[in-house]
Amino acid sequence: MSTSEQAQSTLPSQAMNFSVANPTPSANLSLSKYQGAGFRSQYSTWSLLENGGLMQFNLQLSSPVRVAWDMTVCAALVDGKANNPISISVNGFSFIPEYVDQNPNFHTVNWSIPPSLLKSGANEITVTLLGSASSQFFIQSVNVAATSLTRNNAWNNGGTFQNPDLLWYAKGVRAMMARQLSDPTSWWFFGAIHGQYIVNGDDPGTPVPSGFPNWADIPPVPAVPTSPLPSTTQIAQFWDQCQHAGWFFPPWHRGYLYALENILSILIQQQGGPANWALPYWNYLDTDTNQLNMPPAFAQTHLPDNTANPLYVTARYGIQGNSQIYIDPKVVNQKCQQNTAYTNEYGGGNTEGFAHFGSSTGNLEQNPHNMVHNEVGGQVSDTLWGLMADPGLAGLDPIFYLHHANIDRLWASWNLAGNANPTDADWLDGPNDSDPRGNRRPFYMPNPNGSAWLYYPSMVNTISQLDYSYQNLGAQAHVPVGNLMHARLRALAQSQTLTVPTLMENKNTPELFGASNQNISLGAAATQVKVKLDSAPQQLLAKSLSTASASQLPDDVYLVLEGIKGQMDAAIYKVLVNNLDAGHFSLFGIRKASAPTSHHAGAGLTVKLNISEIADQLHLSGNLTDNLDIQIEPQGKIYADGSTCTIDRISIYRLSNN
Prior knowledge:
The longest helix is centred in the middle third of the chain and has 22 residues, at 249-270. The chain contains twelve helices and 26 strands. The chain has three domains: 3-147, Sandwich (Jelly Rolls); 151-470, di-copper center containing domain from catechol oxidase (Orthogonal Bundle), CATH 1.10.1280; 503-655, Jelly Rolls (Sandwich), CATH 2.60.120. It is 20% helix and 24% strand.
């Protein structure tokens, strides 16, 4: 049984009809208590009387699911006017503080209650007529059912505020921004969950930057608060939590989006917005349309009602530093979708516990994730860059969450194509409190009621577990058919066969067969590095390429940039191997990965580029010689007073597939 089917069996669609004096409870729903409310025989319905009447329902759930709560209601008129505001609470939480309905005809109103407000067993949902009421409110029936959300494309209706998903997103974000930094459900607190520069959450005894990117020095808008601070306990539990450069990157961010979406959904419904609102996604990979550009709603300074647009951000400079936000398809791609293994390939390497910044970036994170962060953020000087270009700032930019919804969509699409997530307990259980290896900090997110949600990757393994889907989960038009190995065999063995076995995690040990022997510093100009190859591994590689077939798979070859350290997160570089394009890498996260108190004690970033196809081309042309010429070129506008970063070593590895 699928998770969606389980949810439906947990709460099948059912209703209680109040056209009788003693309504019959349904399987999961009963009227457990009422006062100042009762049956009105002349109207064949129940009503809430003036001033404080309430109806308390008991909703039984075997496990929390997203609940569609629908009521058929009618407003009573006194002298031709209705004054009957109601509130709805869920397990003591003020879900809808005030709902005003002046329709004197029976009609259906609906809300969506997120699982985070519900529990296994009995749940109390109370509908109360507020004390300010001067007329009655009639309820004819209450309907409940398990439901799910659909995340839609942000570019629907041209990506403007004609798209109701974006308009309501703006209204929800504005409500979150109105809350204090110390409130776990505020916009600012959620930004700090991803990363922050107000206090040093990784090492409380170490100072934060004295200027930008300290949050006090972010150019408005928005005006970012730095006080009041939450308690030190809350900071330790929630802040600086994002998982990067490791295999927890996809599941941690899925839980992060889900928690934010639950809070926004409630705030939107409290303002009269739709019950089925879900976080939109920005599909910047659809190169046949104008979706390469940021949705126009994010570039407007005002909403349609002429109030300030909370989606507009000043520190969003773009790859050329001119505030024109678009995604360059020559840099950003989704080749990661061709991967067939999660660990050490698609999702990242095993970080052996909590890693705010590890050193084993997966291909999904490397490109498109990191590239889009930097192409949106950009920089305008060596001391000022966009929010999206730095993980300690990125969660403050509303476009962040639409970018990550697309990353989450790619992961779900990758799974839909038949690729499996890890079954290793180290991944499924996350870095939990019982982890014997240390690094035990678990993943926590704030619930809408301020409580903490503890979650593990096993709880967010699929999107159906969280009761949502995407408007489009299909592969994009420009993803090549088949995987990398198929393409290589077509070139090496001149075979069109697609009967190559699917490669899962390769547990062979990579063999180092070349490394740089010079100091490497990157800046605003191209850098040249020569790597000498060892003869014995090179001969093994050549033999592997010469005998390649479906039964004798060729070796993989990787170029690894090790120990990338610096302070400038906003830069992107292109790598050429013997003048052949090896791909791009981003410095996103370098500041935090280079900090001495980081998970890997300041080891910096490590970037792995698969250059197997380049090795194939050099072999076929007879140019696989003893040396590889590496050129690293900056992309876009880079402001660097000296070097943006240093690299400890550039290494070449051979990995046998047999």
